[in-house]
Write a structure and sequence with these properties.
single chain, alpha+beta, Class II Histocompatibility Antigen, M Beta Chain, Chain B, domain 1, four-stranded antiparallel β-sheet, 4 helices
Length: about 90
């Protein structure tokens, strides 16, 4: 019983859930640089939930979790303008 309660073992046994949110911005080049596609992808716990695709020109939900966020970002012209310009400014 003392082993289970010792600090090193207690730290190892920490079973609280961990959640990770992150995003990636990607440039895909086709035919040299004649055609460029920009993707801005958002992940939560390794699952993509929303993305901006320059070929589409707006955010699209990948899962139901992303639907409210995509609708919110798509309702803001300045955000869409910035993302659409990323093909030239970021890539």
């Amino acid at each position: 019983l003392l082993t289970v309660l010792s600090p090193p073992v207690a730290l190892v046994r920490d079973s609280r859930p961990r959640f990770l949110g992150y995003s990636t911005s990607e440039c895909h080049f086709y035919n040299g640089t004649q055609r460029v596609r920009f993707l801005d992808r958002y992940f939560y716990n390794r699952e993509e939930w929303v993305r901006f695709d320059s070929d589409v020109g707006e955010y699209r939900a990948v899962t139901e979790l992303g639907r409210p966020e995509a609708e919110n970002w798509n309702s803001q012209p300045e955000i869409l303008e910035q993302r659409r310009a990323a093909v030239d400014t970021y890539c």
